[in-house]
Design brief:
6-stranded mixed beta sheet; Rossmann fold; about 350 residues; 6-stranded parallel beta sheet
Length: about 350
C-alpha cells in the first residue's frame, strides 16, 4: 500500500475485526476488549495508520482539540503559561492548536480558522474578545475561557489573578517604606489587566490621601516603558515606580541603572508584576507581585472542561490572589511580613 493513505478499513482487515472496533480503539472513552485493542494497535503500527481526528470529530462531535489564541509571547509569562496549559490539557486527553494574534489584536479574526478545525473549546491568553465573538461561540456550542484577561460586559468565563488587590498591595508596601513620590508605568490600558492593576494602585494611594506623581501607559512594550521611565525621572522625579508587568520592569531597571546611573533601590524603588523566572536573577532581583500561574492554569482547564461537558453551566469569573515577592529592587519597610506590617 505504499503511497496510498491507510484507512480504518485497512486496519480492520489486517486485524480481522470490524471497522467499528477500530473506531472504538482509537476513540477516548470508548469500550474495546484488551485483546481487540492489542490486535488493532498492532495492525495499525504495521500499516502506519494514524486515525483521522477531524473525520472522527465529524462523527462524534468531539475533536479533542482545544484552540488557544495567544499574543505577546515576548513577555516571559506567556510561553510558560502556554507550556503549562498544553501539558494540563494533554493530561486530560486533549491537544492544543495554537493561533497567534498580534499584540493588541482581538480574537475575532482567529475565529473562522478555529471553527474550521472543529475545536471543542477555546482559551484566549493576552487577547481580548468582542461581545459579538462571544455570542458566535455560544451559538456554535464552543465554550471559551479567557486566561489572564477579563471582558467587561461579556458573557464569557475568565481566570485572572486578583489584579486590583495586587496593585493596591504595591501602593501600601511603597507607602509603608516611606516613599512619597510614586509613579506608575501601567500595562496597556486597553486590557483589563492594565486597567485593574492601575486602579488598585491608585486606590491604595487614595486610601492614604496620596496620588501618583505620574501615571503613563507602558503598552506592555519594553521600548516604550524605557522611554517613559526616562521622561518620568526627568519630569516627575519619583522615588518609586510600580511597573505593570515584569517584562517592562526589566527595561525600566536597565534604563535607570545603566543609562541614567540611578541607584536602585536607594534612590528609586522598582516593583513589577508577574514574577517570571528572570525576576529572581541576581542581575534584576525584582520585587514583584506573583501571578499564581499554576493555579490559574488549573482553574482555566477545569472551567473549560466543565463547560464542554455541560454547556448549560453558567460562566465563571475567577480571581486568584498572588503574593508580593520581596527582592532587592525596592526598599523594604521595617517590620513588613507576609504582605503587612
Amino acid at each position: 500500500m505504499t503511497g496510498m493513505r491507510i484507512t480504518a478499513a485497512d486496519v480492520a482487515r489486517r486485524a480481522g475485526v470490524s471497522q467499528s472496533a477500530v473506531s472504538r480503539v482509537f476513540t477516548p472513552g470508548a469500550s474495546a476488549s484488551a485483546r481487540t485493542a492489542e490486535k488493532v494497535r498492532r495492525a495499525a503500527e504495521e500499516l502506519g495508520y494514524r486515525p483521522n481526528v477531524l473525520a472522527r470529530a465529524m462523527i462524534t462531535g468531539r475533536s479533542r482539540i482545544i484552540g488557544l489564541i495567544v499574543a505577546y509571547l515576548e513577555n516571559q509569562f506567556y510561553p510558560l503559561a502556554l507550556q503549562l496549559l498544553a501539558r494540563a490539557l494533554k493530561a486530560e486527553g486533549y491537544h492544543v492548536l495554537v493561533f497567534m494574534a498580534s499584540n493588541g489584536e482581538d480574537a475575532d479574526k482567529m475565529l473562522d480558522d478555529l471553527l474550521d478545525y472543529q475545536v471543542d473549546g477555546i482559551v484566549t491568553a493576552s487577547v481580548g474578545m468582542s461581545n459579538a465573538l462571544t455570542a458566535r461561540c455560544a451559538a456554535a456550542g464552543i465554550p471559551v475561557v479567557m486566561f489572564n484577561r477579563g471582558q467587561d460586559g461579556a458573557d464569557v468565563s475568565s481566570v485572572t489573578s486578583a489584579n486590583r488587590a495586587g496593585g493596591q498591595q504595591v501602593a501600601e508596601f511603597l507607602l509603608a517604606g516611606g516613599h512619597r513620590r510614586l509613579g506608575h508605568i501601567s500595562g496597556w490600558l486597553g486590557a483589563s489587566t492594565g486597567r485593574d492593576r492601575a486602579a488598585g494602585f491608585a486606590a491604595g494611594l487614595a486610601a492614604a490621601g496620596a496620588e501618583p506623581v505620574a501615571l503613563v501607559d507602558g503598552l506592555y512594550r519594553q521600548d516604550h516603558a524605557a522611554a517613559v521611565a526616562r521622561d518620568m525621572i526627568r519630569n516627575a522625579n519619583p522615588d518609586a515606580i510600580f511597573v505593570g508587568n515584569d517584562h517592562m520592569a526589566f527595561a525600566v531597571l536597565d534604563t535607570l541603572r545603566t543609562d541614567l546611573g540611578i541607584d536602585v533601590p536607594a534612590e528609586v524603588s522598582i516593583i513589577g508584576y508577574d514574577d517570571v523566572p528572570m525576576a529572581a536573577w541576581p542581575a534584576y532581583g525584582l520585587t514583584t507581585v506573583r501571578q499564581p500561574i499554576n493555579r490559574m492554569v488549573a482553574a482555566t482547564v477545569s472551567t473549560l472542561l466543565a463547560q464542554i461537558e455541560a454547556p448549560e453551566r453558567p460562566v465563571a469569573r475567577i480571581e486568584l490572589a498572588g503574593d508580593l515577592i520581596l527582592r532587592t529592587s525596592a526598599r523594604q519597610p521595617e517590620g513588613w511580613h507576609d504582605g503587612r506590617l
